[in-house]
Amino acid sequence: MRNVIIQSLLCASLTFGIWIAVFSIYLHYNHVKKQEKTQEKGNPLIWSLGEKLRSKADSVHIPRAYNVRVQRASEDEPAEPKSLLRLGENFNYSIPELIHGYSTYGFNHIISKNLGHYRSVPDTRNVMCRKKTYPARLPTASIIICFHNEEFSALFRTLSSIMALTSQYILEEIILVDDMSDFDDLKEKLDYHLEIFRGKIKLIRNKKREGLIRARMTGASHASGDVLVFLDSHCEVNKVWLEPLLNAIAKDPKMVVCPLIDVIDYMTLEYQPSPIVRGAFNWHLEFKWDHVLSYEIEGPEGPTTPIRSPAMAGGIFAISRHYFNEIGQYDKGMNLWGGENLELSLRIWMCGGQLYVIPCSRVGHINRQHMTNHSEIMKVVEYNNLRLAHIWLDEYKVYFPLPRLPLCSRRLSVPIAMHTSLDPLPRLTTKSQAMRLKHHT
């Protein structure tokens, strides 16, 4: 009798364990599916803007005078510009509105206005990236976007794409920093339209022009998320863009990560996929894109492998809030913008961190063409680069002012810049880095 009772208890325990295992698998499967659906449609509990903006995008009237062709991919997809503006002899470059918008914003603001406040962009991730899953528990993100006289539709598309394609449970907040904009549509009109994102967006307005570098530091000082994600004000994020960045930082808090930056053409605003590249720079401290060698992505993870990068492009990256403060944030002595991306890249590598490009994260970006105050911008960039060279390059700073040499003859050391036969730059501690900045400030 006793043996029968023991056997019955063992069978009951085994059955209970099997049911628990099956139930756990079921819950995990539902979580993954729910996560995918949230990325596709946004979170209806937080906001219902996605469908509203899609309907607006569908109903936008696009003048034929600008040679725009719109095609509908499917019933579920909004109208997408497949060939918005083909440059050629048939286009009238003397249109005053086009010239004024181009000189003001650095891209075709006519097309931008016609696109409206939201559009779907093609999923440019590798197939292997689409099969990846991420932990349910990830750090929270504060997304910081600074702007000065940005074109309204481009700015609002940036916000709309974030809200539509970011899981709300990892999005702590979006911090908008208005760096003393002059345009009327970035004042009351912007305040009115931001009401739809109530509860997720903080808007900070600087009382004087600070420049991109100090404006970002202002935004960071108001952030409460675990991770700071810096974006430009003329971006459009892609599907499942934030999870890969947060997952990498969760594994190593001293890892600073950048998405692959897809190209949004400044004239046609077509969204174009980018190949896998890394950031680098030359002896003139000019940022360059560098091709990734094929053997670097031939491992088990294939094209989803994180790529070590000597430098970041500057506008789009994610960093642990604690680590950002630990390394001293940006150099406050730099003005406006320019050179801060290389300065921060050197600071990361030389103060115990690592910089990677995450191919499974994609963000589109308009490469604006700067037409106004070109000489003033060049003076600021030159000043910032001289400051960078004198603070960080030590004995190698003598190479900075030299005329351009062939790329193969003079290169900084990996991972500080590119590939080289020179000795590596000295690795700094946080204390020595602070001493340098104090000496040069």
TrEMBL record:
It is found in: Endomembrane system. It is a single-pass type II membrane protein. Its cofactor is Mn(2+). It comes from the Eukaryota. One of its GO terms (biological process) is spermatid development. The chain crosses the membrane at residues 6-27. GO terms for cellular component: Golgi apparatus. Signal peptide: none annotated. Keywords: Disulfide bond, Glycoprotein, Manganese, Membrane, Signal-anchor, Transmembrane, Transmembrane helix. Pfam families: Glycos_transf_2. Residues 142-324 form the Glycosyltransferase 2-like domain. InterPro entries: GalNAc-T (IPR045885), Glyco_trans_2-like (IPR001173), Nucleotide-diphossugar_trans (IPR029044). Belongs to the glycosyltransferase 2 family. GalNAc-T subfamily. PANTHER family: INACTIVE POLYPEPTIDE N-ACETYLGALACTOSAMINYLTRANSFERASE-LIKE PROTEIN 5, N-ACETYLGALACTOSAMINYLTRANSFERASE. This is Polypeptide N-acetylgalactosaminyltransferase like 5. It comes from Capra hircus (Goat). The lineage of its organism: Eukaryota, Metazoa, Chordata, Craniata, Vertebrata.
